[in-house]
């Protein structure tokens, strides 16, 4: 039979959970407001990464504190008896849960290490296991990477911490786009150089630093090869810059009567200064 004290205990337990949720909501609101005022994602990605991890850890801590208080308020002895009876008849399940908890704790510890040691930060452009992308979030157990072609990678933190990570943002995030044209020997190289540089500088993704260059990089029986080197902010931007400049340059060269063939265009996979 449910006693009056049981109703009181349930009411107090609900109140504890509500208070814990309110505290978390206030903490999250304060962190978000502080981040917006200081513009941390742009000004200090490292501080933003640490704040978000503190926010998530606070949520976990509040949850367990509230849960502990609820167990203390309710009949803990009865709960213990039920739990002992269940696990006594489910030893195999307990072992499986133990292994699962071990993996979960490894991901949690790795997530905390990543957030505070900061081999990567929110917004960083990185290469992980031959995948290039931007760090979208670093959670307690998983890290989300948005690739340059808009795929989403969800990587367990333990796996991430064991891998080699190339962080382009911490070195130099700029990426070179290269366009190589094959010209006949009678082609006017200066005209080709002017067209390539004009098209590169007119592109919205072009970065003026470092300066673009056009060089004759090869000559053989079939003609000469001229290469444009221009720079963009990211690998995706560099790819778009190379493709657009190549297409526009070929059209202008054809209209100018300059014989040219596109041998290849590519985006280098190494950033500036590496």
Question: Can you characterise this structure?
Answer:
Helices cover 55% and strands 22% of the residues. The model is unreliable at 262-269 (pLDDT under 50). Among the domains are: 4-89; 175-267, Alpha-Beta Plaits (2-Layer Sandwich). With 274 residues, it is an alpha+beta fold. The longest helix has 35 residues, at 4-38. Strand 2 and strand 3 (142-147) form a beta hairpin.
Layout of SSEs?
Layout: H1 4-38, H2 40-43, H3 45-73, H4 76-88, H5 91-117, E1 125-128, E2 131-138, E3 142-147, E4 152-156, H6 157-162, E5 165-167, E6 175-183, H7 189-202, E7 213-220, E8 223-232, H8 235-256, E9 260-267
Antiparallel strand pairs: 1-2, 1-5, 2-3, 3-4, 6-8, 6-9, 7-8
Helix pairs in contact: 1-3, 3-5, 7-8
Which labels suit this protein?
274 residues; alpha+beta; Alpha-Beta Plaits; 5-stranded antiparallel beta sheet; 4-stranded antiparallel beta sheet; 9 strands; 22% strand; elongated
Can you tell me the CATH topology of the domain at 175-267? Alpha-Beta Plaits
The helix content is: 40-55%
β content, as a range?
Answer: 15-25%
Distance between the termini: 73 Å
Highest-level CATH class of the domain at 175-267 = Alpha Beta
Q: Could you spell the SSE succession in H and E letters?
A: HHHHHEEEEHEEHEEHE
* Total beta strands: 9
Poorly predicted runs? 262-269
The main sheet orders its strands as 4-3-2-1-5
Average of per-residue pLDDT values? 78
Brief overview, please?
The protein has eight helices and nine strands.
């Amino acid at each position: 039979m449910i006693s009056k004290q049981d109703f009181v205990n349930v009411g107090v337990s609900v109140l504890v959970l509500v208070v814990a949720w309110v505290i978390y909501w206030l903490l999250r609101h304060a962190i978000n407001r502080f981040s917006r005022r200081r513009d941390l994602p742009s000004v200090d990605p490292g501080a933003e990464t640490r704040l978000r991890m503190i926010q998530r850890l606070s949520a976990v801590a509040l949850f367990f504190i509230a849960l502990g208080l609820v167990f203390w308020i309710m009949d803990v002895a009865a709960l213990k008896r039920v739990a002992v009876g269940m696990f006594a008849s489910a030893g195999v399940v307990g072992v499986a849960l133990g292994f699962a908890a071990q993996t979960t704790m490894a991901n949690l510890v790795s997530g905390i290490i990543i957030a505070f040691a900061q081999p990567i930060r929110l917004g960083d452009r990185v290469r992980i296991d031959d995948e290039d992308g931007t760090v979208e979030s670093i959670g307690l157990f998983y890290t989300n990477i948005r690739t340059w072609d808009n795929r989403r990678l969800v990587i367990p933190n333990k796996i991430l911490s064991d891998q080699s990570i190339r962080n382009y943002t911490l070195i130099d995030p700029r990426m070179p786009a290269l366009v190589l044209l094959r010209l006949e020997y009678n082609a006017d190289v200066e005209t080709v150089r002017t067209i390539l540089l004009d098209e590169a500088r007119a592109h919205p993704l072009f970065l003026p630093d470092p300066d673009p260059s056009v060089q004759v990089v090869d000559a053989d029986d079939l003609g000469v090869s001229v290469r444009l080197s221009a720079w963009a902010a990211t690998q995706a931007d560099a790819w778009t810059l190379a493709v657009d400049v190549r297409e526009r340059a070929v059209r202008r060269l054809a209209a100018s009567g300059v014989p040219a063939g596109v041998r290849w265009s590519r985006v280098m996979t190494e950033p500036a200064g590496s």
